[in-house]
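Notes, p. 3: input format for complexes.
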Amino acid sequence: MKSADMHAIRTGFGYDVHRLVPGRRLMLGGVEIPSPMGLEGHSDADVLLHAICDALLGAAALDDIGKHFPNTDPRYRNISSLLLLEHVGKLLEAEGYALVNIDAMLILERPKVLPYAEAMRSAIAGALGVTADRIALKATSSEGLGFVGRSEGAAAHAVAAIVRI
Ligand code: MG
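Output follows (165 residues plus magnesium ion):
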């Protein structure tokens, strides 16, 4: 099978889950959201940004977020995932890729994140150096079902399309 390079769109997929625990800040899409529970993790545990990072890395076949930012590395302890996303954007740029679009879905029972969606889109676009019209963000609850429904954690899915320019 032949490979197409010039202007061939590549897509990537990302998925992540983090546990909700009391006493942590809730960071989603690079925005702090008032909540009694936050996501647990080595970094700021921004589940949405992690899924987006993996979608971008996957589109470029550049491994995954765990390989680039190991959770055993003290440099990444409590780091803002916006910095990780910015780094991923620069990695792809260095490989000659430009962003076509990102579509992401956050799955969280509470709090409602709709009031923060525009701030998240702006933060994500800012970290990547693109305009917010490239970033789509959706959120849903889990209707009380499963680990998300029991507010034990949050999940996120993302797809990204990139093109070599
Ligand atoms: Mg993660």
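The chain has one domain: 9-164.
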